[in-house]
């Protein structure tokens, strides 16, 4: 009996040792060299695997960082500048700083602002609805309210508000990965520069219809009146296809356009409440007027030329 | 035993409410909106502008390419504007608005009812005439007919199949055409046979239209080249590939056109339009449209000018019923719900169906119970439950691998699903995406 156990043990040990030797040599023979820096870069990344960088997950991004040897076109929106600085330190390269961004919804057509013209009864997906028709309101550019964006968000930063029927972005959680931009069939999301103290001004509308048509379908539609365009001192507003767009790189958050907009299509976020009109606002205007006047006129002329061409 | 296709299929309640109603001419509307894209392919280019006077049958938009079709004015009057408006696609599309004044036809168009049987047997001339008349497939797919009649190099048509199946529930426009316009229809079929240079034509008709089968059998008795084929009632037998399988037993390979098995399929409405174009010089400006529904006071078949708002049809059929829940352009299986009643009748509108509120409502979506009913009924042999899942999860390569592009969008899967899952909604979405991917890959 004991002999059997001893023989078995010897035989198994011999097989084990033999297998270990074979495996050792095979592993040496077929070893794939992997740059140890890839692992280091990956550790520096947030590990969200969201695909916001344009690669299939953090590992793929780390591989790309090591391979490219240049970080100019590579950026992790989740980790931001700090994370990229770490990556740069690992690789001994220089990271390009980018302004932190946040997703904003360019539609304010809530149930109150945008009356329904028909009922949608199909699959509850924006993509499926958009493939079928223009939407259950008069506006063919607006939010379809089925929440494809909220489903696409990996960071719990987008929620549908059942009262307005619109998604809401939680600024603190949004990492600007761009998943919602991809998910929205109406292209309503835009990654805008996070202003100082998260202050933002943007046109919450994408309606390209003529003013009357747009206004009829939605109370807060941009009607393309160009008033904001004319009042903007920084040339930050572009008019295109009856629609105003505020360039977040040029906008200095002066809020002049917000007051000017006749349909309240321009939204300001993160600002303290406005003071009731005192003599404070006119003052800088008076001050600026004298030197700025010819400049403003000139820019206005060019603006009208542009708009004529369009 | 009656012929039919083998794979899948369903049998929804037929509800052919307007089958016994003769075709009536609908009164001219006050104004029409004629979209420039009423066919598959490139949209036509508008030739008229605001203020122009037009006559019935005048060319108002020129074909925008080989796969495209001319558009003719369906009324006489003044062009109000060329602008965007909603059509049955659910999106604003460019079209021509015309205010109707009188009913003056373009010169050279024969509007009499006399039957002209003799035609010049010249394939090229016939195809040119069909092309000029802007004829497209009137079964609903609106594929330009002249393209179908010109098979690609190296392929030869062996037979012409005429689709008189009308397998969609409720619709009866083709049925009425076969009963009332049979002599003209047969001349149209002979013209098509001549254009394709084929010796044999089959008219496939489902067995729920015994009067049409008997009538056409009677008329085709002296002519051995045209044969009426009665078919077992089964949806979607009107699908091109299903009809070919049912009548000839041949199977069109995946991704191929019917011409690959030597068949060309045309609808009875198309054959009638071909007769009118070739023998009477009449372009495609009007078509037979069924207006129907369980609550509709007077379900009817109307001869309607293209561009007429569907509201006019609803009025003529006794107004919108109080319990109307959904208005569908086309039949209940493949038709599309419309968002308002201003949308126009186009070349592809075979019917307007007004569904009751209670029958139109979709049930709550439940989880898939893996019963595989959708697989059993799919006439293309696909796996609808799987295609829906991968489309929902946006795994397009899997969708392509499982032949999503072969789906004919007949809706049998959604119809039969006991869990009320929106199978076709997602498959259609996936099909559009995969189609785009394939197209961009080719470029």
From TrEMBL, chain A:
Its cofactor is [4Fe-4S] cluster. [4Fe-4S] cluster 2 binds at residues 139, 143, 149, 184. Its EC number is 7.-.-.-. GO terms for molecular function: 4 iron, 4 sulfur cluster binding; electron transfer activity; metal ion binding. [4Fe-4S] cluster 3 binds at residues 153, 174, 177, 180. Binds 3 [4Fe-4S] clusters. One of its GO terms (cellular component) is plasma membrane. The chain crosses the membrane at residues 6-27. It is found in: Cell membrane. GO terms for biological process: electron transport chain. Gene3D superfamilies: 3.30.70.20, Electron transport complex subunit B, putative Fe-S cluster. Residues 165-194, 212-242, 244-272 form the 4Fe-4S ferredoxin-type domain. SUPFAM superfamilies: 4Fe-4S ferredoxins (SSF54862). Keywords: 4Fe-4S, Cell membrane, Electron transport, Iron, Iron-sulfur, Membrane, Metal-binding, Repeat, Translocase, Transmembrane, Transmembrane helix, Transport. [4Fe-4S] cluster 1 binds at residues 50, 53, 58, 76. Residues 276-292, 300-310 have a biased composition (Basic and acidic residues). Residues 274-310 are annotated as: Disordered. Residues 1-27 are annotated as: Hydrophobic. Residues 33-93 form the 4Fe-4S domain. Belongs to the 4Fe4S bacterial-type ferredoxin family. RnfB subfamily. The complex is composed of six subunits: RnfA, RnfB, RnfC, RnfD, RnfE and RnfG. Part of a membrane-bound complex that couples electron transfer with translocation of ions across the membrane. This is Ion-translocating oxidoreductase complex subunit B. It comes from Sunxiuqinia dokdonensis. The gene is rnfB.
Automatic annotation (TrEMBL), chain B:
This is Ion-translocating oxidoreductase complex subunit C. The keyword DNA repair does not apply. The keyword Translocase applies. Part of a membrane-bound complex that couples electron transfer with translocation of ions across the membrane. PROSITE patterns: 4FE4S_FER_1, 4FE4S_FER_2. It comes from Sunxiuqinia dokdonensis. Residues 358-381, 398-427 form the 4Fe-4S ferredoxin-type domain. [4Fe-4S] cluster 1 binds at residues 368, 371, 374, 417. One of its GO terms (molecular function) is metal ion binding. [4Fe-4S] cluster 2 binds at residues 378, 407, 410, 413. It is a peripheral membrane protein. Its EC number is 7.-.-.-. Binds 2 [4Fe-4S] clusters per subunit. It is found in: Cell membrane.
